[in-house]
Please model this.
Amino acid sequence: MIIGRILGWILTGGAFLVLGHDFLQYLDSQTWHSILLGELWFTINPEGLNLTQAIVQRYIWPTLWDPVILSLLLWPACLVFLAPGLLLLLLFRKRRKPEGRGLSS
Model:
């Protein structure tokens, strides 16, 4: 449970960091451009992106890269982090113990 919440907070925090980056870029250029997941990955680690593509196409399944992973890399990075982050926070939220119904003390 705690690992799911921590991962959810990390992903949600990452989404807000990316959104903050997008907002600073907007203030600088006065045009909104949401950074795509592929752009972000290439900015952080271009060799890792190329290596992942080579591994997926050669050893896993070549058609997995082009329609599935490539379309995911073209999504805005803040949405890619925010959606699973919020889902994890919702799934692994702390649940309150039910009050004793109908039990008199």
About this structure: The chain has five helices and no strands.
